[in-house]
Amino acid sequence: MPGAGRPHRPEPPPETAPDVPPERADVSAARVAELLLEAADLLEAFGETPHRVRAYRQGAESLGRHAGEFHPRLAAGTLTELPGIGRELAAKAAEIAATGQLAGLAALRARVPPETAVLTAVPGVDLKTAIYLASRLHVHTVAHLRVLARTHLLRSIPWLGPEGARRIDAGLARVSGA
Length: 178
What we know:
Blueprint: H1 29-45, H2 50-65, H3 70-76, H4 87-99, H5 105-111, H6 116-120, H7 127-135, H8 142-150, H9 161-174
């Protein structure tokens, strides 16, 4: 019997468009840019080199400006011809287009202390500062943040300085219970 013992191979699915991979035709340049920006924010918060963080942000911005070219360039393998897109970011964009996800992003998200959501609700507290407060200074609540602000220890955060500390003080005044 011909073909006995060989697995049946299904027919390949019809193409959705010649320039869009059929398996992830729904992944837009905006979604790719969104994931790259999230990765940039988390990399910055965890102390990654400024060069790498800036590269992710510039790549995301470029994809936003050239969204209409994303799928044709992805299919042609020419994403690196867009400004701000190097080999690494082109590979990451292709990965997101193929899978809908960015490898390593889940691990970065898992490193974010749960308290950051509470802390970033305070105007003036960005993700980087919230992660620093939770992981380095053990600030887990808005009440803890208020104590830190009253003791002027916010100024000890290297990138914050007096102006950043004032912004957080003003944010705390706007949060209920001030």
